[in-house]
Amino acid sequence: MVLISNNSKEKGFEKLDVVKKYLLKIFTIMSKEAREQLMDLNLSKSELKEVKKELAFLPDEKQKEYLKELSKKNYS
């Protein structure tokens, strides 16, 4: 399969559905504050990995809310 071609009948990589979906996603990076809060929680490595996955696609405000709830549960 050729992904890049001068032939207009063949699809380029940017026309593949999986690439379109990937490029349309909004990626966010955890702020320094969020990372510090996360490290302050008493979580195992596997729990930490799961939480990072959850936070990765949340906007900054939602990350803060999520971490606030986690810290409440963690210190209860």
Structure description:
The protein has about 80 residues and is an all-alpha fold. The protein has a domain at about 25-75. Helices cover about 60% and strands about 0% of the residues.
Entry keywords:
mainly alpha
What order do the helices and strands come in, and which of them pair?
Blueprint: H1 17-24, H2 32-40, H3 45-56, H4 60-74
Give the CA-CA distance, first to last residue: 56 Å
By DSSP (H or I, 4+ residues per run), the number of helices equals: 4
Overall outline: elongated
Strand content: under 5%
Alpha-beta content class: mainly alpha
Query: How much is the average pLDDT?
Result: 78
Percent helix, as a range, is 55-70%
**Rg, Cα atoms, Å:** 19 Å
- The count of strands amounts to 0
Q: Order of helices and strands, N to C?
A: HHHH
Main sheet attributes: strand count, strand direction, barrel closure: none
Low-confidence stretches: none
What would you call the quaternary organization? Answer: single chain
